Each structure stands twice: as structure tokens, then as C-alpha cells.
Request: fold
Amino acid sequence: MIHGYPPQQTVPPPVVAHGAWAACAAQRSPFWRLVAVEARKLVGTRSDKLVLAFSPIFLVGLMVLFTLPQTNLASAGKQIGPLLIVVQLGLLLVFATVIKLVAGEWQYKSVQPTLLVQPSRMRYFLAQGTVLAGVWLVCTLFTFILFPILIKIAADGNNHNYLLGMRPGWVLGVTMLATALVLLTALIVSLLVPNTGGALTVFFIVVPMLAVARLSLPEVFGLIYPLEPAWHLAGLGAGLPQTISSAVLWLGLLALSLFRLQRRDAG
Reply:
């Protein structure tokens, strides 16, 4: 007791329920919630929404351009050939949004909040991969439904038999593989070049140039052309060595991109 003052009482500090808070903080976010967050990022800005809304129009326009003017559709290979070009060029806008999603997060460090809430980079990648799988499925079905209709119109106009209707499973397989390979290329580029402008430059310039080079010298450039397995499945490939070389190369690049993802500085 201090002279002249009443006795002082010591008030104990409030008890904070650290256990409950720590338990909540330690829980991992459900995987479906991570997928929902990545899906919202895909359409996170007005420009993303406009690009995705315009993508079907662009794809249909490319399909019309590469199907209806065809005059030599006497074989199944001639009829499915334009599909491989349409998949690579017609889906550029969709894959540009994918590149912006993956590469832009590292460029602008917007990946930090995601990794703070959920530190596992593989779960983060799997969540993005699930969203991209949904994009792949939508693009595949849209192309598979519309392309045969247009190529049938072109074949009828040239008095050729429509041959793709006899092998719908084959057409679907080529469509699925070609779309997956283009999407995989966009993903690899965006992971290896974590800069939106740089990744878009590589994807929009280098990859189409590689496609043109492959048409000129398939035996040489087929070795590194990312869509070579799809061309092989369509019966238009340069050969089995080119198909194997392309698959090994791009799977190796995917492994390298995942390795770099695990060690990339997010700060």
C-alpha cells in the first residue's frame, strides 16, 4: 500500500483462447475453395471477361475461314486437317487469358495472398490445373460439336462424302489431344516466363512460327513442335520419331517448369 492511497488490487490479464485460434489457423483451406478462387481469378477483370466473351466468336470465325473454302476434302485426313490449325489459332484468346492468370500472378506478386493462406505450391498448382482442365473440356466440346458441322457443309458443297461421321471417336480424340497440347504449351510458357508480356510474346509469335516451320520441314521441326502427337493421331504426322521427340521434349519442359515453380521467390 502506498501512503495516502487505498490498497491496489492486481487485475489478472484476460485469458485468450489461443488454442481455438491456432487450430483454425492450422487448418488447410478446402481444395474446392482453392479451385473457386482460381476460377474467379480467370475472370477477375473486365478485360478478362471481354476477352473470354469474344473468344467463341473468334473461334467460330476461324473455323468458317479454314473449313468452308476448302476444295479438296476427298479423304478423312483432308477433312480433319483444318481442325489442327483451328485449335491452335482459334483458341488463342482463351489461352491468352490462361497465360495472364498464371504468369501475371508471379509478375505482380499477387500470388502472395494465396500462398500465405495455403503455402503448398503443389496444391496451388493443382487448383489452377483443375480450372484449366475445365477450360480444356469446354473448348474441346465446343470445337467437337461445331467443327464437324462446318466441314460437312464444305464436303457437301464439293460433292465429297462426309467421312468424319464414320469415326466420331477418332475425331473426338484428335480434338481432345490437340486442345490439351496447346493448353499445355500455354501453361509451360507461362510457368517458365513469369512475365505476362514475355509469355504472350513467346506464345503468340514463337509458337505460330514453329507451326509454320513445321509445315515447311515436318521431318526437322516436327521434333520440337508441341502439337506433333495430335498430328500423328490424325494420320498427318511426320513420323513416330518426331512424335516421340516432341512428347519427351514438352513433358521435360513441364517437369522443369514445375521444378522452378517450387523454388520461385514469391516476395
